[in-house]
Structure formats: C-alpha cells, structure tokens
Amino acid sequence: MKNNLDQLNCASFEVRDYECDLQGIVNNAVYQNYLEHARHQFIKSRGLDFSEITKQGIQLVLIKAELEYKRSLQSGDHFYVQTRIERTSKLKLTFYQKVYRTRDEQLMLNAIMTVTSTTKEGRPIVFEQADLLLDNSA
Fold first, then answer.
1. Among 1, 19, 52, 94, which is most exposed with the fewest C-beta within 10 angstroms?
2. pTM, rounded to two decimals
3. Is 77 among the residues known to form the active site?
4. Active-site residue, selected from the candidate residues 6, 21, 104, 135
5. Range of the domain at 115
C-alpha cells in the first residue's frame, strides 16, 4: 500500500551552542528534535495541526527511527530538513527526512521515521486525515 509522492517540505534551522557536545558537534540525540519539529511543520503545511490531532483522540506515535549520520553539524551552522511522506500501511506513515547544511548543500543525515496512529489507550486506530498529508494538491 505505497503512495510514492515526491512532495518535499523544508524547515530551516540554526545550530545553537548548547546543542553541541564536548567535541564541538551537534549531539546525536539533538537531531531527533530537529526531525520531529520538521515533521510537525510538514503536517502544518498540509493544513493539519499536531496538537489538534491529539485533541481529537489520535496519537501519532513514533515506532521506528533510523538515522544515518553522514557528517556533523557545528555551532552556528545553518541547515534545513527536507521531509516527504509515504503511507506504508493502513496504520503506518513513513517520513523520509534529509538534513542538509545550507552553505554547501552537504548532506548531513538521512532518516526514516515511521509513525503509527493509536488511541490514547494505545489501541490502533485509522488516522483518516492522513490522506491530506499525501495529497498532491496540498
């Protein structure tokens, strides 16, 4: 049940000093914050709001995170996250995300993030509005 749409959405960022470790590079865990914010921006760009979805009783839960680190960002680097999405099953959506350093368009990270939809109690539920995320006209 694949829907291969090459819709890309970009979210821009700048690395802050406190996101770096003793080596002077962005701590590996911080990238997940960048990716999450970019996913929420992607959802918003399609006319949906993550907090409103949650208020409606739908929990979009990350169930799998695959991060492939290519290079390291440093304090002050400007970068952007490209995001596209595919429906991989009735209950699962997969976000394909790439982090690029702006100054030289260097690929810094590849990520494949899979989410599923559940009720507050953790029971599977179909997220009907997911089609808005996949719609070419959005």
1. 1
2. 0.88
3. no
4. 21
5. 9-134
